[in-house]
Amino acid sequence: MKAPPRLQSLIEEGLIDTVVRQLMSGKEAMVFVVRSGDHTLCAKIYKEANNRSFRQAVDYTENRKVKNSRSARAMAKGSKFGRQEQEAAWQSAEVDALYRLAAAGVRVPQPINFHDGVLLMELVTDAHGDAAPRLNDVSFTPEDARTHHATLVAEVVRMLCAGVVHGDLSEFNILLAHLPGADGAEGHDGPVIIDLPQAVDAAGNNHAQRMLIRDVANLRDFFGQFAPELRSTQYGPEIWSLYQSGLLSNETPLTGRYAPDRVDVDMQAVLREIDDARDEEAARRLRMASLA
User: Fold this and answer.
1) Which of 17, 96, 137, 195 is catalytic?
2) What CA–CA distance (Å, rounded) separates 181 from 159?
3) pTM assigned to the model
4) Which of 38, 144, 168, 276 does the annotation list as catalytic?
5) Residue 144 bears catalytic tag
6) pLDDT, tens digit (0-9, with 9 covering 90-100), for 255-266
7) Of 95, 153, 219, 251, which one has the greatest count of Cβ atoms within 10 A?
8) The CATH number fitting domain 5-244, selected from 3.40.50.11710, 3.10.20.310, 1.10.510.10, 1.10.10.10
9) Is 130 among the residues known to form the active site?
Protein backbone atom coordinates (compact mmCIF):
# COMPACT_ATOMS: atom_id res chain seq x y z
CA MET A 1 0.00 0.00 0.00
CA LYS A 2 1.00 3.63 -0.37
CA ALA A 3 2.90 4.86 2.66
CA PRO A 4 1.08 7.48 4.78
CA PRO A 5 2.97 10.81 4.95
CA ARG A 6 4.03 10.14 8.57
CA LEU A 7 5.71 6.88 7.51
CA GLN A 8 7.29 8.25 4.34
CA SER A 9 10.03 9.94 6.39
CA LEU A 10 10.91 6.57 7.97
CA ILE A 11 11.29 5.07 4.48
CA GLU A 12 13.51 7.98 3.45
CA GLU A 13 15.61 7.48 6.58
CA GLY A 14 15.99 3.77 5.80
CA LEU A 15 14.24 2.69 9.01
CA ILE A 16 11.57 0.76 7.10
CA ASP A 17 11.28 -0.47 3.52
CA THR A 18 7.57 -0.81 2.81
CA VAL A 19 4.15 -0.45 4.41
CA VAL A 20 2.17 -3.69 4.23
CA ARG A 21 -1.24 -2.67 5.58
CA GLN A 22 -3.06 -0.75 8.28
CA LEU A 23 -3.62 -2.89 11.33
CA MET A 24 -5.94 -0.67 13.38
CA SER A 25 -6.99 2.87 14.17
CA GLY A 26 -7.65 3.60 17.83
CA LYS A 27 -8.39 6.51 20.10
CA GLU A 28 -4.73 7.49 20.40
CA ALA A 29 -2.98 6.20 17.29
CA MET A 30 -3.03 4.40 13.96
CA VAL A 31 -1.02 1.20 13.68
CA PHE A 32 0.51 -0.21 10.50
CA VAL A 33 2.32 -3.42 9.61
CA VAL A 34 5.64 -2.55 7.95
CA ARG A 35 8.69 -4.35 6.60
CA SER A 36 12.28 -3.63 7.47
CA GLY A 37 14.67 -5.97 5.71
CA ASP A 38 13.64 -9.50 6.65
CA HIS A 39 11.59 -8.33 9.63
CA THR A 40 7.89 -7.55 9.86
CA LEU A 41 7.31 -4.79 12.41
CA CYS A 42 4.58 -2.62 13.82
CA ALA A 43 4.54 1.17 13.30
CA LYS A 44 2.41 3.20 15.68
CA ILE A 45 1.58 6.73 14.50
CA TYR A 46 0.36 8.90 17.35
CA LYS A 47 -2.59 11.12 16.55
CA GLU A 48 -2.36 14.84 17.20
CA ALA A 49 -4.02 15.97 20.42
CA ASN A 50 -6.99 17.58 18.64
CA ASN A 51 -7.64 14.32 16.75
CA ARG A 52 -7.55 12.05 19.79
CA SER A 53 -10.66 10.98 21.67
CA PHE A 54 -8.48 10.12 24.67
CA ARG A 55 -7.32 13.37 26.25
CA GLN A 56 -4.24 13.95 28.35
CA ALA A 57 -6.13 13.72 31.61
CA VAL A 58 -4.49 15.34 34.61
CA ASP A 59 -4.65 12.00 36.42
CA TYR A 60 -2.22 10.51 33.92
CA THR A 61 0.15 13.44 33.33
CA GLU A 62 0.49 14.40 37.00
CA ASN A 63 4.15 14.66 38.08
CA ARG A 64 5.55 13.53 34.73
CA LYS A 65 9.11 14.76 34.69
CA VAL A 66 10.47 17.02 31.94
CA LYS A 67 14.24 17.37 32.02
CA ASN A 68 14.37 20.68 30.13
CA SER A 69 13.42 23.51 32.50
CA ARG A 70 12.38 25.79 29.61
CA SER A 71 10.00 23.11 28.36
CA ALA A 72 8.60 22.58 31.85
CA ARG A 73 7.90 26.32 32.26
CA ALA A 74 6.27 26.52 28.84
CA MET A 75 4.09 23.49 29.56
CA ALA A 76 3.00 25.05 32.84
CA LYS A 77 2.05 28.30 31.06
CA GLY A 78 0.17 26.49 28.30
CA SER A 79 1.94 28.36 25.49
CA LYS A 80 2.05 27.05 21.91
CA PHE A 81 5.58 25.79 22.47
CA GLY A 82 4.46 24.32 25.78
CA ARG A 83 1.62 22.42 24.10
CA GLN A 84 4.06 21.06 21.54
CA GLU A 85 6.39 19.94 24.31
CA GLN A 86 3.50 18.38 26.22
CA GLU A 87 2.53 16.45 23.10
CA ALA A 88 6.10 15.22 22.67
CA ALA A 89 6.20 14.16 26.33
CA TRP A 90 2.90 12.30 25.92
CA GLN A 91 4.22 10.39 22.90
CA SER A 92 7.57 9.54 24.48
CA ALA A 93 5.86 8.25 27.66
CA GLU A 94 4.97 4.96 25.96
CA VAL A 95 8.47 4.61 24.53
CA ASP A 96 10.04 5.14 27.95
CA ALA A 97 7.59 2.72 29.59
CA LEU A 98 8.17 0.03 26.96
CA TYR A 99 11.96 0.14 27.35
CA ARG A 100 11.64 0.16 31.14
CA LEU A 101 9.20 -2.74 31.24
CA ALA A 102 10.96 -4.82 28.60
CA ALA A 103 14.16 -4.53 30.66
CA ALA A 104 12.20 -5.73 33.70
CA GLY A 105 10.98 -8.81 31.83
CA VAL A 106 7.37 -7.69 31.46
CA ARG A 107 5.48 -9.12 28.50
CA VAL A 108 5.30 -6.06 26.24
CA PRO A 109 6.21 -5.56 22.56
CA GLN A 110 9.93 -5.01 22.14
CA PRO A 111 10.51 -1.33 21.20
CA ILE A 112 12.88 -0.79 18.27
CA ASN A 113 12.93 2.92 17.40
CA PHE A 114 11.05 6.17 17.91
CA HIS A 115 11.27 8.71 15.11
CA ASP A 116 9.21 11.78 14.27
CA GLY A 117 6.23 10.72 16.38
CA VAL A 118 6.23 7.12 15.13
CA LEU A 119 7.04 4.17 17.38
CA LEU A 120 8.57 1.13 15.69
CA MET A 121 8.21 -2.06 17.68
CA GLU A 122 7.86 -5.80 17.50
CA LEU A 123 4.74 -7.10 15.77
CA VAL A 124 3.02 -9.41 18.24
CA THR A 125 1.76 -12.47 16.36
CA ASP A 126 -0.28 -15.64 16.82
CA ALA A 127 0.85 -19.19 16.06
CA HIS A 128 0.32 -18.60 12.32
CA GLY A 129 2.41 -15.43 12.17
CA ASP A 130 -0.61 -13.16 11.84
CA ALA A 131 -1.26 -10.19 14.10
CA ALA A 132 -2.30 -11.52 17.52
CA PRO A 133 -5.95 -10.96 18.55
CA ARG A 134 -7.02 -8.86 21.51
CA LEU A 135 -8.42 -10.70 24.51
CA ASN A 136 -11.89 -9.25 23.92
CA ASP A 137 -12.03 -11.15 20.62
CA VAL A 138 -11.28 -14.53 22.22
CA SER A 139 -13.35 -16.95 24.32
CA PHE A 140 -11.66 -19.05 27.00
CA THR A 141 -12.23 -22.27 28.86
CA PRO A 142 -12.36 -21.84 32.65
CA GLU A 143 -8.90 -23.39 32.92
CA ASP A 144 -7.38 -21.04 30.32
CA ALA A 145 -9.12 -18.06 31.91
CA ARG A 146 -7.59 -18.89 35.30
CA THR A 147 -4.17 -19.41 33.74
CA HIS A 148 -4.14 -16.13 31.79
CA HIS A 149 -5.59 -14.21 34.74
CA ALA A 150 -2.82 -15.51 37.01
CA THR A 151 -0.21 -14.60 34.38
CA LEU A 152 -1.52 -11.06 34.01
CA VAL A 153 -1.76 -10.48 37.76
CA ALA A 154 1.90 -11.52 37.94
CA GLU A 155 2.68 -9.09 35.10
CA VAL A 156 0.93 -6.27 36.98
CA VAL A 157 3.14 -7.08 39.97
CA ARG A 158 6.25 -7.11 37.78
CA MET A 159 5.25 -3.73 36.34
CA LEU A 160 4.66 -2.29 39.79
CA CYS A 161 8.02 -3.59 41.01
CA ALA A 162 9.51 -1.72 38.04
CA GLY A 163 7.69 1.42 39.25
CA VAL A 164 5.00 1.52 36.54
CA VAL A 165 1.20 1.31 36.61
CA HIS A 166 -0.47 0.76 33.23
CA GLY A 167 -3.44 2.98 34.07
CA ASP A 168 -5.79 1.74 31.33
CA LEU A 169 -5.39 -2.02 31.40
CA SER A 170 -8.27 -4.12 30.07
CA GLU A 171 -9.10 -6.88 27.59
CA PHE A 172 -8.89 -4.27 24.81
CA ASN A 173 -5.15 -3.64 25.19
CA ILE A 174 -3.87 -7.13 25.87
CA LEU A 175 -3.00 -9.43 22.98
CA LEU A 176 -3.10 -13.23 23.02
CA ALA A 177 0.22 -14.04 21.40
CA HIS A 178 2.12 -17.20 20.56
CA LEU A 179 5.14 -17.12 22.82
CA PRO A 180 8.28 -19.16 22.16
CA GLY A 181 9.16 -21.85 24.67
CA ALA A 182 12.33 -21.69 26.72
CA ASP A 183 15.39 -23.68 25.63
CA GLY A 184 13.74 -25.03 22.50
CA ALA A 185 10.55 -26.12 24.22
CA GLU A 186 7.28 -25.92 22.32
CA GLY A 187 5.67 -22.48 22.34
CA HIS A 188 2.36 -21.58 23.95
CA ASP A 189 -0.28 -18.87 23.87
CA GLY A 190 0.08 -16.11 26.40
CA PRO A 191 -0.91 -12.47 26.99
CA VAL A 192 1.18 -9.47 25.91
CA ILE A 193 0.37 -6.02 27.28
CA ILE A 194 0.16 -3.09 24.85
CA ASP A 195 -0.90 0.60 24.74
CA LEU A 196 1.13 2.38 27.41
CA PRO A 197 1.09 6.15 26.67
CA GLN A 198 -1.02 6.69 29.80
CA ALA A 199 1.30 4.66 32.08
CA VAL A 200 2.09 6.44 35.34
CA ASP A 201 4.91 6.38 37.83
CA ALA A 202 3.79 4.32 40.82
CA ALA A 203 5.64 6.42 43.37
CA GLY A 204 5.09 9.86 41.83
CA ASN A 205 1.42 9.89 40.89
CA ASN A 206 -1.26 10.40 43.53
CA HIS A 207 -3.76 8.41 41.46
CA ALA A 208 -1.52 5.34 40.97
CA GLN A 209 -3.27 3.30 43.67
CA ARG A 210 -6.72 3.86 42.20
CA MET A 211 -5.48 3.10 38.69
CA LEU A 212 -3.76 -0.12 39.69
CA ILE A 213 -6.81 -1.38 41.58
CA ARG A 214 -8.99 -0.52 38.58
CA ASP A 215 -6.58 -2.29 36.18
CA VAL A 216 -6.70 -5.48 38.24
CA ALA A 217 -10.48 -5.23 38.64
CA ASN A 218 -10.80 -5.06 34.84
CA LEU A 219 -8.85 -8.33 34.56
CA ARG A 220 -11.02 -9.91 37.25
CA ASP A 221 -14.26 -8.85 35.58
CA PHE A 222 -13.20 -10.03 32.12
CA PHE A 223 -11.86 -13.45 33.08
CA GLY A 224 -14.65 -13.83 35.63
CA GLN A 225 -17.00 -14.30 32.67
CA PHE A 226 -15.28 -17.64 31.99
CA ALA A 227 -14.20 -18.59 35.53
CA PRO A 228 -16.84 -17.11 37.88
CA GLU A 229 -14.83 -17.82 41.03
CA LEU A 230 -12.41 -15.06 40.00
CA ARG A 231 -15.11 -12.43 40.57
CA SER A 232 -14.68 -12.61 44.34
CA THR A 233 -10.90 -12.05 44.30
CA GLN A 234 -9.27 -8.87 45.62
CA TYR A 235 -5.81 -8.97 44.07
CA GLY A 236 -5.64 -5.23 43.40
CA PRO A 237 -5.94 -4.00 47.00
CA GLU A 238 -3.72 -6.88 48.16
CA ILE A 239 -0.98 -5.98 45.67
CA TRP A 240 -1.05 -2.28 46.54
CA SER A 241 -1.03 -2.97 50.27
CA LEU A 242 2.06 -5.16 49.91
CA TYR A 243 3.70 -2.53 47.70
CA GLN A 244 3.06 0.25 50.20
CA SER A 245 4.44 -1.90 52.99
CA GLY A 246 7.63 -2.61 51.02
CA LEU A 247 6.81 -6.33 50.95
CA LEU A 248 6.05 -6.76 47.25
CA SER A 249 8.45 -8.57 44.91
CA ASN A 250 8.04 -10.64 41.76
CA GLU A 251 8.10 -13.76 43.95
CA THR A 252 5.63 -12.58 46.61
CA PRO A 253 2.82 -15.17 46.95
CA LEU A 254 -0.65 -13.68 46.53
CA THR A 255 -3.92 -14.97 47.91
CA GLY A 256 -6.52 -12.80 46.16
CA ARG A 257 -7.93 -11.92 49.57
CA TYR A 258 -7.72 -8.57 51.28
CA ALA A 259 -8.99 -7.41 54.64
CA PRO A 260 -8.25 -3.74 55.38
CA ASP A 261 -6.88 -2.99 58.81
CA ARG A 262 -9.67 -2.04 61.14
CA VAL A 263 -8.84 0.10 64.17
CA ASP A 264 -11.43 0.30 66.94
CA VAL A 265 -12.46 3.92 67.52
CA ASP A 266 -12.45 5.17 71.12
CA MET A 267 -15.63 7.26 70.98
CA GLN A 268 -15.11 8.62 74.48
CA ALA A 269 -11.71 9.96 73.48
CA VAL A 270 -13.21 11.54 70.34
CA LEU A 271 -15.94 13.23 72.41
CA ARG A 272 -13.35 14.52 74.86
CA GLU A 273 -11.38 16.03 71.96
CA ILE A 274 -14.54 17.73 70.72
CA ASP A 275 -15.35 19.09 74.19
CA ASP A 276 -11.80 20.36 74.61
CA ALA A 277 -11.91 22.10 71.24
CA ARG A 278 -15.27 23.65 72.10
CA ASP A 279 -13.93 24.90 75.45
CA GLU A 280 -10.83 26.37 73.77
CA GLU A 281 -12.97 28.19 71.21
CA ALA A 282 -15.25 29.58 73.95
CA ALA A 283 -12.22 30.80 75.90
CA ARG A 284 -10.79 32.43 72.76
CA ARG A 285 -14.04 34.26 72.07
CA LEU A 286 -14.16 35.44 75.72
CA ARG A 287 -10.65 36.82 75.45
CA MET A 288 -11.47 38.61 72.22
CA ALA A 289 -14.60 40.12 73.79
CA SER A 290 -12.63 41.37 76.79
CA LEU A 291 -10.16 43.14 74.51
CA ALA A 292 -12.83 44.83 72.45
Assistant:
1) 195
2) 22
3) 0.78
4) 168
5) no
6) 999 987 665 556
7) 219
8) 1.10.510.10
9) no
